[in-house]
Amino acid sequence: MGTLRDLQYALQEKIEELRQRDALIDELELELDQKDELIQRLQNELDKYRSVIRPATAQQVQAQQQSLVLQPDQHRSKRQAISAEPTACDISDLCHVTLPFYPKSPESKELIKEAILDNDFMKNLELSQIQEIVDCMYPVDYGKDSCIIKEGDVGSLVFVMEEGKVEVTKEGMKLCTMGPGKVFGELAILYNCTRTATVQTLTHVKLWAIDRQCFQTIMMRTGLIKHAEYMDFLKSVPTFQSLPEETLSKLADVMEEMMMSPTCLGFCGLHLHTHTHKHFSLALDEGGRTFYPPPLP
Hints:
297 residues, alpha+beta, Jelly Rolls, 4-stranded antiparallel beta sheet, 7 helices, 20% strand, flat, disordered C terminus, nucleotide-binding, cNMP-bd_dom, ATP binding, protein serine/threonine kinase activity, coiled coil
């Protein structure tokens, strides 16, 4: 009988051990699911930021509907209706897009430019893009204790502050105060997303604003022009002349331009790298005619 009791006791211990293991497995699976969700959210945020840092490519543009001429109203409300993304089928269409222009003093232009260059999400834009953004921004004034951005609202405008001071809060908690020379609301020009914080004026403020549609038009036009230039570049490289158009287009999407001192290397280059971290460069001689792959260290 003692032996049977021992066996029963041992069996109960094994059953309890298996139950604990099952519980641990369930916990680990739940933790894994949560981490998968976190990775997906971070990937979505990364995609948003990339759409600002890297201009739109030809493939991204072809999937969108056509809306070419922008005529923003001089009198805008505090909350702008959501606009469809600006689109076009080719470079010639985008070149004929009419972008708005608002005159500014040299001081205002410099302030907007420096604010963009100081913003983590916009500082990598090309100077030509920044200049177009500066030209397209229109003036907006708010009185004291006005709500410029409300948390949870859908936004389509990004602002640069020229005068005054605002307070930024999230879920009722104060995050910071901002003064002149700061960009805010920039996520609205990436996606049709809700505002992540509330921005309320502490004084009378003077702002400059640009809507998402206008911003995306600038990005797409620059992206298409660059993509076409890179495609021509790749087609002129003997090594790549046998590659299909689709492959060349993918290469053009990941190209980054680098300017090198002629006194050092005698050429300007375009740098390519892939998700596998492999990279190489292509070079153009000083005459602007011969492309060749220079040796890499």
